[in-house]
Amino acid sequence: xxxxxxxxxxxxxxxxxxxxxxxxxxxxxxxxxxxxxxxxxxxxxxxxxxxxxxxxxxxxxxxxxxxxxxxxxxxxxxxxxxxxxxxxxxxxxxxxxxxxxxxxxxxxxxxxxxxxxxxxxxxxxxxxxxxxxxxxxxxxxxxxxxxxxxxxxxxxxxxxxxxxxxxxxxxxxxxxxxxxxxx
Length: 183
Known about the structure:
The chain has helices spanning about 1-10, 15-30, 35-50, 60-75, 80-85, 95-105, 120-130, 135-140, 145-160, 165-180. By secondary structure, the chain is an all-alpha fold. The protein is elongated.
C-alpha cells in the first residue's frame, strides 16, 4: 500500500494512465481490510481506463486486479458490493487523485489490521461458526455461496493456525471473554 501511495504522490494531475495504475494497486492492497473503498477505487480505475483502450485485464497485473475485485466483493453482500462499485463510476482523474490522497492522509497511511489479521467478514463468519451454524446456513444468512463461506473459513483457519471449526469457535469464545467488561 505504501508504495502505491508514494507512487500516486509522484503522478501529475490529469495523468490518467499512471493514476489508474496506482489507484488499482491501492484498491487491491486494501481489498480485505476496506472492501467498500477498494471497490470504489477499482471501479473508478477501470472506468477511467476505458477511453484509453487499455483495459486492466490486458495488463500484466490484470489477474491481481481481478483477484482484488473478487476478494472485495466476497466480503460484502451483492447489494453492498454493487453499490460500492457504482460509487466509483463518476470520478474524474483529478477528483480521484485528490480523494485518495485525502482519504489516506487522514489515516496513518495504512489501514490498521487487528493483530489476528481477520477481515470484518471473516470475523462475522467465525462468529456464526461459534454460534453453531453450518456453512450452508451461514451462506443463506449472509447471501453468499457456500463455496465463498468455505473459502472464508479456509482463510480464517490459515490466519489463526487452526485446523477445525471447533478451534475457530473456541477462539471466538475466548475473544468475547477477553473483551467483556469485568463486573
